[in-house]
Structures are given as structure tokens and as C-alpha cells.
Design brief:
42% of the residues are buried. 40% of the residues lie in helices and 17% in strands. The chain has a seven-stranded parallel β-sheet with strand order 3-2-1-4-5-6-9, sandwiched between helices. α1 (15-26) crosses α6 and α3 (61-75) runs parallel beside α4. The radius of gyration is 17 Å and the shape is globular. With 247 residues, the chain is an alpha/beta fold. α2 links the parallel β2 and β3. It is built from six helices and nine strands, in the order βαβαβαβαβαβββαβ. The chain has helices spanning 15-26, 38-48, 61-75, 99-126, 150-170, 213-224; strands spanning 6-9, 30-35, 52-55, 80-83, 132-137, 175-183, 197-198, 204-205, 233-237.
């Protein structure tokens, strides 16, 4: 079903993005990847067997426009986009949050997600046959914040609004949009959780993680759905992480 379809993965040079690029390639997609770190692109491209790759700063709308234009030129169309690129922010109490940290996180996690989704939407709307699917990478933080993480929390809440807006506007163009909210998958970004994470009651405690392959399976499942069906929101998490109720 996926043979020959084109999947785009942003933030694909490490962690969840790279794992999903590899998984989509193995599922038969022609995969286009991007990331800010040029030194990691060659390695990720080889591992994923990517059909196209380019350095791209998602916070730069011109960069994003050029990336999608090159994908369409090289691969012909865009069928699926995993809008994954994002970053954490250093822990800080709300009143001590640095303004430059706030703007940097908003530029990547919110503006960047918007720029990518907008170009994906335009490509899917204008191609023949029309349509495609966008999956935004939200977070458990889209529903339940951590202390000292205002920039990350606010941007991930905003991704939920972005997902809903795209879903509604996409109906006229056969464009589906969903969101995956991930809690503590084992990756380079979550390695510190093994040694302890600040909790709402002020204590530090380690948190459980789960293997990234389960996220890959979820993304491939979402990508493979026919466009008349959609996973609007999926939460995949470590079973025992402190999220449900009082943990």
C-alpha cells in the first residue's frame, strides 16, 4: 500500500525522527529527511535509505519552502509528513524563564511546526491526485505540564490547536491531520530521565521509558491508513510514568 509513496520527516538526524525515517523506509516509502545538523545528515540518510535529504532550519520559512520545493522536484509529490522537529528548554521557574529561551523554543516548536505544516498542506492541496496526511509530534506536555518547563509546555499545547485547525481546513482537499503525543520513549533527548526528573512535589525521581520502536510502529500505522480514516490524537507512553492521576 505504501510502495512508492513519499514520506517527509523533519528533525530526522537523531532520536525519534531518525528511527521513524528508517521505519517508514522499511515500510516501502520513499523518504525525504531534513535536519539542522549537516554533520549528522549523511549518517541518517544512509541508515534510513533516504531518497532525498537536505539541511533545513524549520524556524526559517524560506528554508522550509526551499526544502519542500526540492522534495516535490526530486520525488514528485508529498504523501505523508511527520512534523517532528522540536527542542526542549532548560528547566527554570516561570519567573526566571529567559526571554531568549522562550523565543528560541517558540521559533522551533511552534513557528517551525507551522511553517512545515503549511508547506506540506500546500503541496498536498496542489498535487494530483490531491491529498495526504500530516502527523504533528505533540507531547504528554500538550496535556500535563512539567514544573519549570513553560516554553516547551506552551508550544506543545499550541500544537494541539494547530492539529485541529489543519484537520478542519484539510477536509476540502483530502488532507488528514493527526497528532502523536509521546511520553518518555528512550532516546538521546530523554537519557537524563534515568537519573531523575523534577516532579510537581519538588522531588527528583527517575521515570520509566519505553523503546522507540513502538513509536515507529505507531507512525507507520498512522501513515498507512487510507485518507478516509484518521487517528486524530494518539498518546503512547511508558505505562508507569507519573502522568495518569497522581502517578
Amino acid at each position: 500500500m505504501s510502495e512508492g509513496k513519499v514520506a517527509v520527516v523533519t528533525g530526522a538526524t537523531s532520536g525519534i525522527g531518525k528511527a521513524c525515517a528508517i521505519g517508514l523506509s522499511q515500510a516501502g516509502y520513499r523518504v525525504a529527511i531534513c535536519g539542522r545538523r549537516r554533520d549528522r545528515l549523511d549518517e541518517a540518510t544512509e541508515e534510513a535509505g533516504a531518497a532525498f535529504f537536505a539541511a533545513c532550519d524549520v524556524s526559517d520559512p524560506g528554508d522550509v519552502n526551499r526544502f519542500f520545493a526540492r522534495v516535490r522536484d526530486q520525488l514528485g509529490r508529498v504523501d505523508f509528513v511527520f512534523n517532528n522537529a522540536g527542542r526542549f528548554s532548560p528547566a527554570a521557574s516561570f519567573g526566571d524563564t529567559d526571554i531568549s529561551t522562550w523565543t528560541d523554543v517558540v521559533d522551533t516548536n511552534l513557528n517551525g511546526a507551522f511553517f512545515v505544516a503549511r508547506e506540506a498542506f500546500r503541496a498536498m492541496r496542489d498535487q494530483n491526485p490531491q491529498g495526504g496526511r500530516i502527523v504533528n509530534n505533540g507531547s504528554i506536555s500538550a496535556y500535563s505540564p512539567r514544573p519549570g518547563a513553560a516554553p516547551y509546555t506552551v508550544t506543545k499545547h499550541a500544537i494541539t490547536g494547530l492539529t485541529k485547525a489543519i484537520s478542519l481546513d484539510g477536509r476540502a482537499f483530502n488532507i488528514a491531520c493527526g497528532q502523536i503525543d509521546i511520553g518518555n520513549t528512550a532516546s538521546d533527548m530523554t537519557a537524563s530521565m534515568q537519573s531523575g526528573v523534577l516532579q510537581a512535589n519538588g522531588t527528583i525521581m527517575p521515570e520509566p521509558t519505553f523503546e522507540v520502536r513502538h513509536v515507529v510502529d505507531a507512525i507507520v500505522y498512522m501513515a498507512n491508513l487510507p485518507l478516509e480514516a484518521n487517528v486524530q490524537f494518539m498518546t503512547i507512553m511508558a505505562t508507569n510514568m507519573p502522568y495518569i492521576g497522581r502517578g
